[in-house]
Amino acid sequence: SAAIAEDESWVVFHNPGQGGSRCRGDEPYGFTRTDCLAHFLQHIRDKFDFIDVVGFSAGGMTVMAMAQEENPIADTFVSVCSPDRIRLVFEEQSRWWCRFDVFFSVWFHLCAKAAGLTDHVPFKRFPWPPTWAGYMKPFTEKTFEVGTGEYRTFEELEHQHFDGSLKAPASVPCLRILCLDDPIVPSKTLEHNRLEHCEVWWESRGGHCGQFFFSPNCAQRLRKWVLQAEDRKRG
Length: 235
Prior knowledge:
Blueprint: H1 35-44, E1 52-56, H2 59-67, E2 76-80, H3 86-93, H4 100-114, H5 131-148, H6 154-161, E3 174-179, E4 199-203, H7 211-214, H8 218-234
């Protein structure tokens, strides 16, 4: 690999409900959930001198949320083509003729069903247009209502659970890798005034999360960035 040496370790991590896993417990969480990843990292923290966390797409929302915690467990945090407010992404996609929002609504429904979430949330609508106002938004509101016993609008939940932007400069190195030709998370949906809180790379090609394959040297540059951060930590 251009980014990982033979003597280095790597692991793929999914939050509950992703990667075929089941949701457990009644407390609802959004895309910025960090407790499961934190639990995993705490168990391996003593085994490694340096840990870099990379989040792809919506997984980057979790990564950026963890970077903003008071004492981040990892040493550097990177997001690749991650959205800021997922609501803006869906609203933008619903205006296109291609209608990626329909695909992602169906995919979300299938993930929620496989994770067991639909067994506990009484919601009968189908993931079909209008995808955001008719399915994603009310399903999310119902899930949190069932889990907390209190109804709150998505807009009230958004800041804490569904906003993956950096609200302020983090105490650890953070990098966001974005793409000018990303068809899933267009530039116009990002909180550009908050991008100044971390280092940002705008790649010219790679679409959505394909930078390590299509950008000529993105993986090598990322490795160099991480190693430089490691050198600074060691002093």
